[in-house]
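[09:14] KT: can someone run the structure on this one? pasting the chain below
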Amino acid sequence: WGLLLLAAALGGVAAARCPAPCVCDNLRAHVLCLNGSLVAIPDTIPELTKKLDLRGNSFSVIPAGAFLATPYLTHLDLQHCKVERLEEGAFRGLGRLVYLNLASNSIALLYQESLDGLFSLQQLILEGNRIEEIQPGAFGHLGSLTVLDLRANALVYLPDMVFQGLQVLRWLRLSHNTLHVLGSEAFAALPALRRLSLDHNELQALPGEALARLDGATRLDLGHNPITYVAEEALAMASLRHLFLDHASLQDVAPDAFALSPQLRMLDLRENQLQGLPPLAGAGGLARVSLHGNPLLCSCLLRPFRNWLARARVQAEGACAAPPALRGRPLDSLKPPEMRCSRLRPPPSPTTPSEQPRAAGSTRCPRGCVCSPDFHHGSCANGNLQEIPRDFPGDTRLLDLRQNTFRTVPPDAFPGLKELVSLHLQSCGIRALQPGALRGLDSLVYLYLTDNHLSTLAAAAFEGAPQLAYLDLDRNAFTRVPAGAFQLLPNLISLHLQHNAIGELAEGDLAGARGLRWLYLTGNAIRHIAPAALAPAKMLEKLQLEGNQLVEVPTAALRGLSALSELKLSRNPIKRMGDGVFLPVASSLQHLYLDNMGLEQISPRAFAGLGPKIRSLYLESNKMSNIPSMSNFTGLEILNLQDVPFHCDCQLLPLHRWINKLNLRVGATCGSPPEARGLKVKLSTTFQTCPGWGRGEARAANPEKTAAASKPSKKKRSGKSPARGFNKSRA
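[09:31] RB: done, structure tokens below
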């Protein structure tokens, strides 16, 4: 019976129909649907498929039960799929899945049930999204997860118990976010964690209270944070062996800073501002300390540290910066008599950052609301309330007031909530945010005002909320950006104004938004962007202008945006692109979206200046018949040329040759001449009559030197990409 069942199963895989435009490897139960124009998960994928690669499609939303037809999946790759939202229950039924890659999408929020049903999942990759907030319980069903990758998102705050349920997690990657607030119990539910990556964030002090919950962690990465001082007994991690505090802003370290981390062996303090160190007597097990790149003053003031190094047999890496006679001398070569006192004095040590007293907690809670003292949450969502309730506990950090009918937010609407970090006011019928409405919300980072009726905002509305970093005003009634409204928000990082009725961006609209990094303006009616409209936002990294009424690339407005890495112009009626339209951002741009625009002509030098930095280029669903040379785009990971009517004559021969060298599925198809219509540009024979055809294709004909155009070779080449996608994540 077992053999009969196995035969029936194998027969089912072989007989199953492969959905277009996918490629099915029935022997290994793999399905590839790469870089296509799919807008929904195909429902005809063979049921017994184990590995499904959907990279480079356009799903926007993963609906509930999207994969119920493929319950045997073990590996699922959804990178670069423009996913914005995971509905609750999106992955329900995938109880065998061990690997899920959702990197390089546009997911902004993880809800409690978004990842429900993935109880066998071992690796979850969410790198390169725009996740701003994680609700506690979002990972509660992932009891088998060992690696969680949240790098390069937009996280500022981690609430208490946010990782609850991850009992076997060993590596948590939070690098390249903007974290500067960690709940004291943020890491409390991670008993198996061995490695924590918090480098490249905005932490201004060592989050000792939160880290003290990690008894088993052996490696901690805290480099590239603006930490200036490590206080006494600041780090209590019983198993920690490797600590990285490189490229921070350290000016001083207390003698007993690491006394409560007895297993510490390696301390990396490279590229800081340390002129010296005291004897680290508390770090009894330390074997190596790296001090390269610090302005070390090798005077008599450093003798105690030098003597301690010799006595404790600690290897020190670094060299003197002063006095001149010792400049460049390695620390381990110094003799105490050489370290003389001089008139040079080190600057006074910075005072230890004092911790603000916590607001007293309370068991009080407004009638009709629910307050959770464990999570510091309050909720009155969908309560049919007409006035904003008061008397929440003073230590509330997340307040959910969605789906009520407040109409207006009056002055001082949230008294006593100095610790509030996240405020949800979506779908509340709000027409006015009055001056002083947020007064007293000293710690507020996230403000959600989506789906209201706001048409204007004054700067005074944000008075008293200086830490606000994420402001979501999607789907309101704005006809223009509220000019000057952001003057009191020096820490604003992300501004959402999608799906309003904004007609233009004028000079002065973004005044005061000097720290803005992400600007989302999709789905408005923008026809014009003034040359100086974006000038205040010199740190801008992402600019999304999809679905507006622009008729040309706003080249003049891009000048000065030296950090811009993503530009989305999809679904604008831009018919022609002239020379050098992306030159102002050519040195930084990595992701360029030019799809679904009706684009008819791209000039030969339209992409001038762009090159190896470009990682993804979307040109699908346009009307041009040729495109300029992209031979210097050597770093491409995604190239989509589907639904473009290429004229496959000799002028297109360079593109044909270039595509044949790529290890990418680009989807380029001939629209003319008639004998080539519908053929892949790669396979069209119309190029064989072109001058120079034989010379260019001579090497390609030799299968031992390069990939030939034969069918077996194509299968081999296309089989490489999914192996990388499934089994290897970026370091």
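[09:33] KT: thanks! Residues 1-15, 343-362, 698-731 have pLDDT under 50 and may be disordered.
[09:34] RB: yep, looked fine to me
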